[in-house]
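Now for one record:
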Amino acid sequence: MSVILLGLGRYVEEIVEVVSAISDVVLVERDEARLRAFLEKAPVANLRALPGSATDVGLWKEVDLEAAEAVISFLSVEATLDVARLLRKALGYRSKIVHVSKARPDPQAVRELDLEVVSIPEVLGAILRNLLQGQGIVRYPVGIGLRKGEVVEVLITESSPAVYARLRELRQPGARVALVYREGSPILPRADFRVQPGDRLLVVGDPRGVEIFVGAVIRGEPTFPRRFGSVGALCRAEDEEALYLKERLKVRDWVEACEDPKGVAEVGVFLARDRDWVRRAFQEGYPFPSFHLRGTHPYRSILVSANTEALSPLLASAMDLARIFGSEVYVLFVSRVEAFMPPEEKELLENLKVLVERARKTSGLEVHLIRKEGNPVRETLRLLKGKFNLLALGYTPGRRTAFFRPYVPQLLAQASPVSTLLVPEVNLER
């Protein structure tokens, strides 16, 4: 097998050194004097030199194209396109043709002739982004994909806001962790995979989604409500509290949606004042967060109810809101008397201690864990009479309270004396 190099470009000597270590090399150069000087300077045992023009059909009769794995051209754009047409259309060559240059050929010609293009400025740009912007934490690919930021590798450090989080807590529309490298081994991760320091995450997706994911994982930038959608909806919520939220939540646009907020495309958050919207949120199963306003802004202190099966998206949203509003966060877990706690409650309590400590260390936020014993609804409402401005609740869309099956999140949302945020447990992968 062989690789054919066309033209003595600036980087050919280095390329010959690399390629000749794994394959035979055929070097085509029309300037015979320059070719001789190159061979004298860098003799290579498995290098064959062919003086002549690469656009000459006769020259190609001396080459075994069937054995050629690739043709790499350092010629001008015009000469490369001429050679590619000759190889593809006249000689039936089907293997890889690569053009190396600072100029890019016509995109249509690239597609028609099935060319691979390596742009030196683009490669250097990606390397510099790795060195300057990534600072050894974020690395961008060189020579693969569209090179528009749709593929990126992220190194998780001890100080990363994502350390020890599960992937389901980090999820972001338009971005997905495709692979994790841990201690030299690749892992295909599941949603419950827990990230550790030293892990390298290969993130793929829409460039904007990947950018938001990287910002959240590396710098702790809030992604609420963008992880749910890019549009804000509201129903007759135009008072000071609604304005307070609209000024701080980053969405593309705000639209009135009193009939059916679920009918709004890409809705990420909904604002409402009428208490009937609480019932509708549970009954209709909104797949996006909703604020139910009681006029208790600014949100200096947020109480998060951990008595929910939808804890992961709730905690992630609460941490984001704390960054957005500059709030303190209190995570409340109401359990049975310790002597009668079942194993699953004990495990949840230990996990909450770890999560709160991690959030405090990695975010710099004021995060506290409160544990009470007794009835979750009664104890939570009793605590809300104090200093809290916002109650954050997680819930499963479609699940609601019934006479013989009381549902704690709905009962709390209906009785809350302060503004309430409902965060649904939904699948955000799309």
Observations:
- The chain has a mean pLDDT of 85.
- The two ends are 43 Å apart (CA to CA).
- Residues 343-363 form the longest helix (21 residues).
